[in-house]
Amino acid sequence: MMKKQSFDVLFFSMMVLAVVSVMTSGCSPKQAAVAPGAGVQSKASDPVAIAAQAFDHNPTFENAINFGLALHSVGNHQKAMEIYQTVTINFPRASLGFNNLCAEYNDLQKYPEAVEACKHALELQPNLDLAKNNLAFAQSRVQMQNARIDQLREEAAHGKNRDSAAIDLGLELYQRGSYDQAIEAWQRVSAKSQFYAKSMNNIASAYIVLKKYDLAKQALDQALKLDPSNALYRNNAQWLSTASGGKVTASTPSGG
Fold it and tell me: CA-to-CA distance for 63 and 54, rounded, in angstroms?
């Protein structure tokens, strides 16, 4: 699977932090200090908890942005993305919300979504250089991703290691949110392959995301039958149960 170029993402993300902090609070966010040997942070000194409390008490644009920045600073890009998605809905004319959403998508390697978010930011504010940079980064990664997918399609169809290529192809497609195509790729893996259990687990994951829980159970049951002690498969069994509200549960043979 294509490796994330963390330096470029970090560079653009730090630019987000600098620009947003000037426009909102007037200073860069600072991590609260912890006394040597303390080992823990109280909720009162936790910047994420402080930002969350401020946002819950008064969900203004500024508080939402600050909450997103706090989450970003501790690497919680998934939650930061969700906050910025809310920002773009509640403040649809704010280019900064779309730019920050773009940056979080980049951190999560969701490059097609990043492209759309940054394009929207530039529609609202054409001279926002930060969004231009984030857009260029996302577009370059989309091109790389497309080239990688084309290569893996060829290898999965005609290469010597077809099953391995099919696993990697599915992962690339899953990462970009093409869940049905990912399932199709994983379904190519031979039942006699060493990768078969992995492919079934991956198929189950995609079906869970698509809320097709019965199909997820069928695939996950096969994965667990082949490798009942696999921690990842068992975790996904719990995910299936939680996602379906307990209505669908995978069979988990003893063994781990």
Answer: 6
